[in-house]
Amino acid sequence: KIVEIVLWAASNGDLSENGVYMYGKKRLREIDRRIRFLTKRLEIAEVTDPSVHFGSEQIFFGATVTYVDDQNVERTVTIKGIDESNSAAGEVSWISPVARTLLKARAGDALKLVMPDRVGEIEVLKVNYPAPINT
User: Do 33 and 61 fall into the same domain?
Assistant: First the structure.
């Protein structure tokens, strides 16, 4: 669709003052840049199966962890990849302060959580992994 707009705008003559053409070309560059970025991300992406840790009490990538903080607020988060995280859904990136603190810990561990604005403590209550899918 953008290509069609650019072609139409280019056919209208003087390109130096053609706002539709200039905007269309800019948008095409943005799309191309995003495609290159996503292509590179796909080249280095790794598929992991968190169910290999099913039943484990230790926290690894893919774990769903319930913890309580020093304000006595209980939270549940799932440790995901950078591109998969969604804090509103309780999905945190493995490089986030919370996930880095939780990784390798076990249920029952009390941990020091260093956040950009404060330092607190959390206690791991529960660790879950998805059940393996039998094929």
Answer: no
Residue 122: Cβ-neighbour burial (10 angstroms; 0-12, 13-18, 19+): buried
CB 62 within 8 A of CB 74: no
DSSP of 51-87: GGGTT-SB--TT-EEEEEETTS-EEEEEEE-TTT-BG
Q: For 59-93, how does the pLDDT look when each residue is reduced to its tens digit (9 = 90+)?
A: 999 999 999 999 999 999 999 998 888 989 999 99
- Residue 51 tokens read as 């169910």
CB 123 within 8 A of CB 109: yes
Token pair 């549940």: residue: 76
Asked if residue 61 and residue 111 are part of one domain, the reply reads: yes
Is 134 a domain residue?
no
Contact 62, 72 (CB under 8 A): no
Q: In terms of Cα–Cα distance, which of 61, 81, 75 is closest to 129?
A: 61
Position 16 pLDDT exceeds 90: no
